[in-house]
Amino acid sequence: MSKRIIYQCLGVAFLASCLSACVVPVKVVEKNASKNTPESFNNSQDSTNTAKTKWKDYFTDPNLASLIETALSNNQELNITLQEIEISQNEIKAREGEYLPFVRLGGGAGVEKVSRYTSKGASDDMSEIKPGKRTPEILPDVYFGASASWEVDIWHKLRNARKVAVMNYLASIEGKNFLVTNIVSEIANSYYELMALDNQLEIVQKNIGILNSALSIIKQEKEAAKVTELAVRRFEAEVFKAQSLQYEIQQKIVETENRINFLVGRFPQRVQRDSQQFHSLVPNKILAGLPSQLLENRPDVRQAELKLEAAKLDISVARANFYPSLGLSAFVGIRAFNPLLLANIPAALVSSLAGDMIGPLVNKRAITATYKNASAKQIQAVYDYERTILNAYIEVTNQLSNIDNLEKNYAMKSKQVEALTKSNDISLKLFTSARADYMEVLLTQRDVLDSRIELVETRMKQMNALVNTYRALGGGWK
């Protein structure tokens, strides 16, 4: 058989292996995400959006603004996220370096003893041909030079891997923005809750004073035999109940302050606030804009979109594993069996250049599984993206409805407090003139306390709804 036929057979075998390696055994269909959103919120076509307002302009309370400013510098979770962004940025550099040539500089030394009964040993034994020219049995080897290797990215596998790293880096930035939004809203909600608790504590303390005054009157009435011991005990029990509620509120104040301190990244201390201004707080007017603006304003939506793009590129990277890879390697340096001969140039110069193309031929289970996993993750990313959009729209819709209902609720609560306050004054006058039972005074006073506390809670819920709507629209991270 001639050499030509042998070379032809080897060439056919090589091409067959390459063609076999290029076959992708599993066809994967990429799922496209739907970006469709309803046309409007509550049939409004106004595109003005409160989310574009910076948080410093949205929260005008200087104490609250100071807390947010400190949290954006000291919050531990946010600082951890910033380090994750740094890690993602370094990952881009690592992926970029994979498709560039690797050049190394180094050297080595060693000794080798070759058996005379091998082909190399027999060829080194020149004693039979030229007496005295026999190669030494133990031969040193010293070399120094530069080596290079490069995987030619013919299928863009390595470049797509770098693009995946870029997408993940951008997604980590959006994750940081979403965390900032949540931190801002959580501090604002806790701050308004703290102001509400201060006002509730003041209401309870005033109520304790009123109950003590009423208790004194009841005791005088008992001495005059106008009421029994039962009335005294009932009023004393009501005083104890109010005092117990006072301590509960004080504990809530401590916990709320420390929740804010944790978010701000500091040890427990008093949170500066002006709770006297709580009832004069005027809820801001929220402009929801259009639902399609959520795709631009919400960091979590943009993060999900970037992860979806990364998942699509991961499929391309996994697909490229089925194709043969082309690698080049080279070496340039000096080499000799005696270190003193290394300087003998060009005789000591050594160089090499090689290329190889390798592709999978048999047992592709690992790369096939990787390919299928990439496809499944891409479909997961599609569903996650669509779910994030749906959740964003529902959050905004719920909060807009909440704002409207809380406004009406606060108006009714205000009228309730006004009516009960008047009835309380009337019940006290009737009781002192012996025209009303002590139970009417007691129950009326209890209703007044409950209604005032509920009014404060409703105002707090109003402020929280404004904060949550601002967050749901995508505000707070700019």
TrEMBL record:
Lipoprotein as a keyword?
A: yes
Q: Which residues form a coiled coil?
A: 68-95
The way it spans or sits in the membrane comes to: Lipid-anchor
Where it sits in the cell: the answer is:
Cell membrane
SUPFAM superfamilies recorded: Outer membrane efflux proteins (OEP)
Range of residues in the leader sequence: 1-21
- Which keywords does this chain's UniProt record carry? Coiled coil, Lipoprotein, Membrane, Palmitate, Signal, Transmembrane, Transmembrane beta strand
InterPro entries hit by this protein: MdtP/NodT-like, OMP_efflux
Q: What family does the Swiss-Prot or TrEMBL record give for this protein?
A: Belongs to the outer membrane factor (OMF) (TC 1.B.17) family.
PANTHER family, alphabetized: OUTER MEMBRANE CATION EFFLUX PROTEIN, OUTER MEMBRANE PROTEIN-RELATED
Q: What is this protein called?
A: TolC family protein
What is the native source organism of this protein?
Emticicia soli
Which lineage is the organism of this entry classified under, starting from the top rank?
Bacteria, Pseudomonadati, Bacteroidota, Cytophagia, Cytophagales
